[in-house]
């Protein structure tokens, strides 16, 4: 199904045309073979299948779904979101210069800071949602600019097209971690990014039962892309076929889930915004949010499923509210069909996250039930 005219809901529902050609099943089987046959003439039965490390039809089919949803030239699956982050950084030469948005997913920052020290990579952390700050950081030449849109857990929204212009002027590739947007809401490559990255563990999989990461490129001739693909093949950071199959299954409902999650998140955000016990709500769908104008330009169909709010009071009050939730699960992560709530400062202490901040990942439950749960918790 390499028909670029099909809309995301169609591509997703039919898993980009994946069927089981052997049985006629409308759902593809899972290809588990780790090695492939050669004929009497020693030729491979299929020249593209020699050894299973990164040659697997289930993985390829899942990559094709992401590629089509992203409008990308090519996509590569990796075993987790962090493996995707690491794959990009491993493609940089020692001594490279990276401009990176600060205040993004702490796991990314933590690993990148450590890796850059070990590989003598110059890392400039910058408040990329401030266009002047990003422009200043891009005045000197750079190899890569990395942004996360919207950011986790601050929900900052960098203007991707503007960031691409600045990155390219500096001679850098722009990489966008779009985990909190999904390709349904934002196609970063179409806005000028060179690489798009998602933790597929989140909304792409959507059921909190599979780890994965994915990278997509606009131009497969980008030297970095070849390095990433070679490194995956040679160093072996591959996803298993069962995990890839689960992702493919999950993505069949991605547009539907994202639509419902966005509608729920918008209602929850508006309700929280009007509550006396809430000091602030961080959600790009609220007109008062700093990133609203940018998000309105570059997100289509909603403002995402992730939001944070600050309770009035202190850490104890935030933990009290969290402890009273009965429907939201108290758990880390995001993007699943079930709603999650988390006290972020407990997870990333000393990172400047306010002690009163509660992060919500809004699922597909009934919005009225979710609001009633928050109402009871806030008291
Ligand atoms: N990027 C973002 C924005 C995330 O929220 C996360 C995980 O929470 C990651 C990357 C890392 O993904 P994974 O947990 O699949 O390694």
Automatic annotation (TrEMBL):
UniProt-listed Gene3D superfamilies: Aspartate Aminotransferase, domain 1, Type I PLP-dependent aspartate aminotransferase-like (Major domain)
Annotated coiled-coil segments of the chain: none
Cofactor(s) this protein cannot do without: pyridoxal 5'-phosphate
Keywords annotated in UniProt: Pyridoxal phosphate
Stored InterPro entries: Cys/Met-Metab_PyrdxlP-dep_enz, PyrdxlP-dep_Trfase, PyrdxlP-dep_Trfase_major, PyrdxlP-dep_Trfase_small
One Pfam entry name: Cys_Met_Meta_PP
Superkingdom of the organism of origin: Bacteria
Family of the protein in this entry: Belongs to the trans-sulfuration enzymes family.
Protein known as: Trans-sulfuration enzyme family protein
Organism listed in the record: Roseovarius ramblicola
